Amino acid sequence: AVVSTQSTGEYQIWDTLQELCSALNGTLASHATFKGMGVGDATATALGATYTWILKDGSGMISNILFAWSRGTQLDIDAKRWRLFADVVNDLAMLIDLLSPLAPATLFTPIMCLTTVLRSLVGVAGGCTRATIKQHQAIANNTADVSAKDGSQERLSSLVGLFLSMCLMGVVTDSPLLTWPTFLALTFLHLFFNYKACSCLVMCSLNPARYKILLKHWMESEEVLNPRQVNEMEPFITGRALPVVLGASLLQVPQQFTISDLEKDYMLLPDEKGLHVCYRSGVTDETILESFYFAYEIICSGKTETHPSHDAKERYLDFKKRVEDAGWDTSFAPLGVTALRYRVDH
Q1: Using an 8 Å Cβ cutoff, are 100 and 32 in contact?
Q2: What is the pLDDT of residues 212-264, one digit of tens each?
């Protein structure tokens, strides 16, 4: 298999370790869930357990659809952040599972619905960002091959986790004094391993956070950083968004513009809140990357140009060549651009 050698090996090691911790914690959570559903309780009924199962599955399906609709476009932009989000939410769901037997019986079904909703968010965010990471690793366009090997690695981790879980269950499940320290220790390790896995990824696409770092350094020193340098500086846990709307509607922009302005591929229209970038129909990803360059320049300098000058374009072309020489992929632009476009009919 041919994958991105810059980060794949280290990432797979950390990913395997976090999957192992998650499998062990999942066993403790499942034990608590079965106990709360009445397994081993003579007064529990199969019908009551069935209703609980139906309600929790329905809650998960609805939340899955809503989350994918509201956040789907952001998962490609900030794959590292949403991958870490999925793991934090997964640990939160397992914590609630572990606490569920302590709740009154009347609250058990709502608690199960809540944890299923959380896991549906994990499924969408974790699954989609994992697909993005696989695509990044498949530098020879061998995504299926990379996916198959990643799946095998995941199954192996789960298999080892099952064996260790059998040993763990016999030791800690009957003793809260052992269960909670074990769960908390595994949760800490799980989050730490996930953070390390995300930190070592070297993504070669230009999302807003990485592009801002690249542009800031370029405008200060006229030096282009390579993907590894920028990824090490990328703030994927917290970050301040640039006040730029990429793909704004002309109806949202109070500024006046002429027909000749509309003939351009894009317009840079500042207002008191930030900058609106309006795109003409048929604009390419390379042009979107160009527009972000000049949008950042306007935000930093306070200029009010609707379109970049000829000299500015020449500077950008020099920058773009150096960016590509440094190893960046400029063939697509995961910058969170909306689908709004304007069209000029003659």
Answers
A1: yes
A2: 999 999 988 889 999 999 998 988 777 667 788 888 888 777 666 666 777 78
pTM of the predicted structure, to 2 decimals: 0.81
Whole-number pLDDT of residue 5: 47
Residue with tokens 């529990």: 44
Beta strand segments in the chain, E: 244-246, 266-271, 274-279
Residue with tokens 């968004």: 241
> Pick from 214, 246, 159, 174: which is nearest to 324 by CA?
214
Ordered strands of the 244-246 beta sheet: 244-246, 274-279, 266-271
Contacts of 124 (CB under 8 A, 6+ apart): 64, 67, 68, 71, 72, 75
pLDDT tens sequence across 110-161: 888 899 999 999 999 988 888 888 777 776 667 777 777 777 777 888 788 7
In this structure, are residues 308 and 316 in contact, taking their beta carbons and an 8 Å threshold?
yes
CA distance 188 to 180: 12
Helix segments in 173-279, DSSP class H = 176-200, 208-221, 227-233, 259-262
Which candidate, 113, 106, 100, 111, places its Cα nearest to that of 62? 113
Report the share of the chain in percent with pLDDT over 70: 88
Classify residue 133 by burial, with Cβ atoms within 10 Å: 0-12, 13-18, 19+: buried
Distance, CA of 321 to CA of 247 (rounded, Å): 25
Taking the CA atoms of the chain, what radius of gyration do you get in angstroms? 25
Angle made by CA atoms 220, 80, 213, in degrees to the nearest 5: 5
